[in-house]
């Protein structure tokens, strides 16, 4: 890391101690931040997530960032020989808890790399999508000197806001003004620079800048990153924790023989939030989805605008025997686990007129009994147990969730039978999508798509009370039809305008899901947001449909699956 020699030392924070809020080794927590300065003065215990990456010749090559107890995030280009021949895992190892490369301490730890996961669309020519994860052969033992950084928080500050309000911090052992690798970890404060300014100042960056995927930062001549700093992170403090926003991608060489890298030019960073679902899927599976499934809700990302989900391989039809005379599907659920389908509690409670026979997977339309039709692509899953939320009351509306425990595990290798994701956090979305089958439609009942926006629960409850309906709305959410627009927001999603009148005036079958989709630039991930609990078919009363809130129910679902699953394994 090149730091120009001038007398001004910028002291950012001194003698401050942060206490972790989630245990001794929460992400983004430092035990002491004393005398941290931009001019690379030595500091103890400041960046416990920053690691040194070495090659098989035991030479330092790049930096990286600990994001979990098995994974280090770095740049993909550092995992190649001269950008051509990919390195193999055994040719790399990482050193953690080190500040001076020539003087490891008793708390310094070493980790062998067992797997290199490069972002699938990394371009070696342009160095776009320049991310890789190094999986270590053993779990990292966290301490006050070694710990993980936090990934960018849901709803965290935008690049524009960061550019206005604070500088980020970049650390590394890269080349110094003396054209040698720094033995001591050095630091630089860098400001985010908008694309037009960056492209004007550094002409070579013009074809490389891609909104959303990368960004520019600079130091106005004070310091810069250089060869050897690649793969390191750019950190910001949000609240009382440190978060990684960027990964060092490339800087600008200089003709000035005094400096190997130009401190007056910007540096390109990969924008981690764009790729965050990819990082979470591999390194933080329980952060990616509540059950930690290695694959759930997956589809192909088809460009800068998120598309509707075309196929819904997670749909489950609950088939009943009614009055001991005929079989029919009257409720629906979602496959969320190899052994479990989530549905409404009222769909599986015992009733004298009906008996739940089995669950049908792999079929979207509703027609005659699949047993009679002999649909070879559908799976008829037998049931071993029905689990209803303990606080559900049939005469009430709250806590309307249940699980159907399947007798045998579902094989996810078939493309038309896959699980949907359960969200680990409540994520802001511009709209939800709904799947529904309407009672009055002829068989086979087709799958119908519509778009919805959430409205304030208090307003929804008030409308129902005005119509004489007063009941518990615990763990429920209210949604309103919205009209899908061709207008595209700055973040690449469509807008959806709330409609005052209902789109459909028929009654959908119970348990129809609402969901949302996120992406990582390569794959999409569909998350279950809710399931239709009740509503009205009267288009004149202006009452909203009400859904069981699957985020609020998530902890209960996870706990019941852990308690009742017949197989103990890492999914």
Automatic annotation (TrEMBL):
GO terms for molecular function: serine-type endopeptidase activity. GO terms for biological process: proteolysis. The gene is 6047200. Belongs to the peptidase S1 family. CLIP subfamily. Residues 1-23 form the signal peptide. This is Coagulation factor IX. Pfam families: Trypsin. It comes from Culex quinquefasciatus (Southern house mosquito). PANTHER family: TRYPTASE-RELATED.
